[in-house]
Specification:
There is one protein chain. By secondary structure, this protein is of the alpha/beta class. The chain folds into 3 domains: 65 residues, Winged helix-like DNA-binding domain superfamily/Winged helix DNA-binding domain (Arc Repressor Mutant, subunit A); 136 residues, ATPase, nucleotide binding domain (Nucleotidyltransferase, domain 5, 2-Layer Sandwich); 169 residues, ATPase, nucleotide binding domain (Nucleotidyltransferase, domain 5, 2-Layer Sandwich), CATH 3.30.420. The protein is 41% helix and 18% strand. α2 packs across α3. The chain is globular, with a radius of gyration of 22 Å. About 3% of the residues have low confidence. The structure holds zinc ion.
Length: 404
């Protein structure tokens, strides 16, 4: 929340008051006045606008010992909706959420083509329209579309650097998608979206500093400190996949040696499976389909296959080493694991990271660090992307200027 004093009539004030209603769950006008520093008259006027627009509802009265009873205000959760799309090589996930970030509908379809963004945009527009029709949600009730993807640039003022540039990463997605769907489109990387989604939906208290650790093809870290997503100097914060976890390890495509991604990401786990195991599990052995093979290994590991468990455990140990460093550097309250990489064997990763943090975090004598899987696991990035759209449309005062 901003520390500055708010003027009574700006759009930022209206947005800040709406955010107070949202984060406060149930509030009175007097509480809003006290919290915002605005006069009761100004609050009454702003609340009337929010009631008229259907963004806020009155849900009853505060018990009172006399005088005029104060009415209780809440976010009108079904007053508007937002769409979130998670772009992943394995699959596309669409979710529609209400104003509180609760998922009201979802659709999963085949993953993106790495080199054909133009064709995928046509498909995304079609599938998104179909989902809204199925849910009987008119376009006028949708505030916008958020898109989450690995290495997506952040648009205005911030260019995301990537050494694995594909057409997708430099593709002007909002400009291509907006005219097709008639809704504003915003985007961010999947780890940051997952963090924002946990925050917006109230799954993490606003007082906690936390990070989401995201695994798809590689790793990403979304860092939420003081209620804001950390951005870094060039919006490239969170490249945890290139934390060096073995100085004599294999050379990474980034130029360094022994990066986490080279030792613990799905491709590395699949590469470590020997021929016997590959035959026994019926792995495809196709370099393009390594995520399918990884999921098979992870599933077998979760079911107790000793060899597979050893492979996943090794990946989890490397990840735990990197996660411990993050906890120590940022003094976090919580680490949330999200993304399709944790779908099958997330519990093994949680256990390993939790153990490392409990044993070795420097602040272990002062406060605990919660390690958990995101809820809802596979939809974390898509749900977060919808929260991104909600935040842009409804509480733009909370969006850090110059970034997203
Ligand atoms: Zn690297």
């Amino acid at each position: 929340m901003t520390g500055r004093r708010l003027g009574p009539s700006s759009a930022a004030t209206r947005s800040a008051v709406l955010d107070m209603v949202r984060s406060g769950r149930t509030v009175t006008r007097a509480e809003l006045a006290a919290r915002s520093g605005l006069t009761p008259t100004s609050i009454t006027r702003i609340v009337k606008t929010l009631l008229d627009e259907g963004l806020v509802v009155e849900v009853g009265f505060l018990d009172s010992t006399g005088g005029k009873r104060s009415s209780l205000l809440e976010l009108n959760t079904t007053g508007r909706f937002a769409v979130g799309v998670s772009l992943d090589a394995g699959r596309l996930t669409y979710v529609v959420t209400d104003l509180a970030g609760a998922v009201v509908g979802r659709l999963v379809s085949p993953g993106i083509e790495q080199d054909a963004p133009g064709e995928d945009v046509v498909r995304i527009a079609r599938e998104l329209g179909q989902l809204l029709v199925q849910l009987d949600i008119p376009l006028e009730s949708v505030v916008g579309v958020g898109v989450a993807g690995a290495g997506l640039d952040l648009g205005a003022g911030a260019e995301r650097h990537s050494l694995t540039a594909t057409e997708w990463e430099s593709f002007a997605l909002p400009e291509a998608l907006e005219p097709r769907i008639g809704l504003p489109v915003v985007r961010d990387n999947d780890a940051a979206c997952a963090a924002l989604g946990q925050y917006w939906a109230g799954r993490v208290p606003s007082t906690q500093d936390f990070a989401t650790l995201y695994m798809s093809n590689g790793f990403g870290l979304g860092i939420m400190v003081g209620g804001s997503i950390a951005r870094g100097a060039s919006s490239n914060v969170g490249e945890i996949g290139h934390t060096i976890v073995d100085i004599d390890g294999p050379e990474c495509w980034c130029g360094a040696r022994g990066c986490l991604e080279m030792l613990a990401a799905p491709r590395a786990v699949v590469a470590a499976a020997d021929a016997d195991l590959a035959g026994r599990l019926g792995l495809t052995g196709d370099a393009q389909r390594f995520r399918v093979d990884f999921d098979r290994i992870a599933q077998a590991a979760a079911q107790g296959d000793v060899d597979c468990h050893a492979l996943i455990q090794r990946s989890a140990r490397y990840l735990a080493a990197a996660a411990l460093s993050v906890v120590n550097v940022l003094d976090l309250d919580r680490i949330v694991l999200a993304g399709p990489g944790f779908a099958e064997a997330g519990a093994i990763y949680v256990r390993e990271i939790r153990q490392q943090v409990e044993r070795f975090a420097r602040t272990r004598g002062i406060h605990g660090v919660l390690v958990e899987l995101a809820d809802p696991g596979l939809d974390a990035a898509a749900g977060g992307a919808a929260s991104l759209a909600l935040q842009h449309a409804l509480t733009p005062h909370a969006v850090r200027s110059g970034g997203w």
